[in-house]
Design goal:
Layout: E1 2-7, H1 11-22, E2 26-32, H2 36-46, E3 49-50, H3 54-58, E4 65-68, H4 75-84, E5 88-92, H5 99-112, E6 116-119, H6 126-137, E7 143-152, H7 166-169, H8 171-175, H9 178-188, E8 193-201, E9 204-213, E10 218-224, E11 233-241, E12 246-250, E13 254-259, E14 264-266, H10 287-301, H11 311-330, E15 334-335
Helix pairs in contact: 1-10, 4-5, 5-11, 9-11
Length: about 325
């Protein structure tokens, strides 16, 4: 039985608590949040004990692994604290606000020989898993065009409006858009350069659109959280292959469909036992998070370091996004 402690009981804490609850041989036994009502909500859901002091939770000898769902500027502090008492760590994306912080977190977890996994969930999302399988198969030739989009209403559900403070969240460019950046990196590797344009205000980069230079594939991605409240959330991916075949998915309007020369076909995507709940955030479908948490727990049970998403991967995705923000600031292409 893997025993989990959750620090941060907001939107993402609730998502992962529901996933852990549905998995076998894992139990959340401790939760902590500055908002006691949120901590009690997840404690009631999981049967966990509420810790008013997160440090006490981290140091509890019963707990095997810590799951960190805190504002990004706090990731380094709590990852390092957890590593130093030999706890394995799952930390929600983005890795950190700076590459330097990410490097220090990697150094500390390696020094203490603990496992660290960053929550790059698109690598576990059913439609995106199938998309990658088809790309890797080269059944329709090389992927020639790729477009990714991720847009939502403002994340007003965050504690103390932290999402709208770029010094705590990195803004939409980092917190939201990094999902697609990481998936592009997962699919195609590191681009040669990036060129970005963005919408920037006192709350940071609210929207960003980027073009990535690869040898054989035209790639662009855009994301932002500056849409009307009634819009909700949408993620979309479209790929055009060498023979003209198109694969497309839109979370609001269209399941994963493949458009061939003479006909189109709905691709069969298997969803796991956990699916939709009210998370108080912008996502209600949990299948990708369930897959991610199942993978993480299996790594712990089998004493294996995560390979589908490594610390090196998460740091590389962070580096790319930060270069995009730099490009948007100066209005020029930046080599990577």
């Amino acid at each position: 039985m893997i025993k989990i402690g959750i620090i941060g009981c907001g939107f993402m804490g609730k998502v992962h608590a529901n996933c852990y609850r549905a998995l076998q041989d894992v139990k959340v036994i401790g939760v902590s949040d500055i908002r006691q009502d949120r901590a009690k909500e997840i404690a009631n859901l999981t049967g966990a004990r509420v810790f008013t002091d997160a440090d006490e939770l981290i140091n509890n000898k019963e707990i095997d692994a810590i799951s960190i769902f805190l504002p990004t500027h706090l990731h380094k502090e709590f990852v390092v604290k957890s590593a130093r008492v030999k706890k394995h760590i799952f930390c929600e994306k983005p890795f950190a606000l700076t590459v330097k912080d990410a490097e220090e977190m990697i150094k500390e977890t390696r020094k203490e020989k603990v496992k660290l996994m960053i929550g790059m969930v698109l690598r576990f999302w059913p439609e995106y898993i199938e998309f990658k399988r088809i790309v890797d198969s080269k059944k329709y030739g090389k992927l020639k065009v790729l477009k990714c989009t991720r847009i939502s209403a403002p994340p007003i559900y965050g504690w103390d409006n932290w999402y709208f403070d770029p010094n705590r969240s990195g803004s939409a460019a980092l917190d939201l858009h990094i999902h697609d950046v990481d998936y592009i990196y997962y699919l195609l590797g590191k681009p040669k350069s990036v060129y970005s344009l963005g919408k920037n205000d006192k709350n940071g980069w609210q929207h960003i659109c980027s073009t990535y230079k690869y040898r054989d594939t035209l790639v662009n991605a855009g994301g932002g959280w500056d849409l009307s409240k009634s819009y909700g959330f949408m993620q979309e991916i479209r790929g055009v292959f060498e023979d003209g075949t198109v694969i497309e998915y839109n979370s609001k309007t269209q399941p994963l469909i493949i458009y061939k020369e003479k006909n189109s076909e709905l691709l069969n995507i298997t969803k796991d036992k956990i699916n939709f709940i009210n998370t108080d955030g912008n996502i209600s479908e949990l299948s990708g998070y369930y897959n991610e948490d199942e993978y993480w727990i299996k790594c712990l049970q089998n004493d294996k370091y995560p390979e589908r998403v490594t610390s090196k991967d998460a740091k590389a995705s962070l580096e790319i996004v930060l270069k995009e923000i730099e490009s948007a600031k100066i209005g020029k292409e930046i080599l990577l």
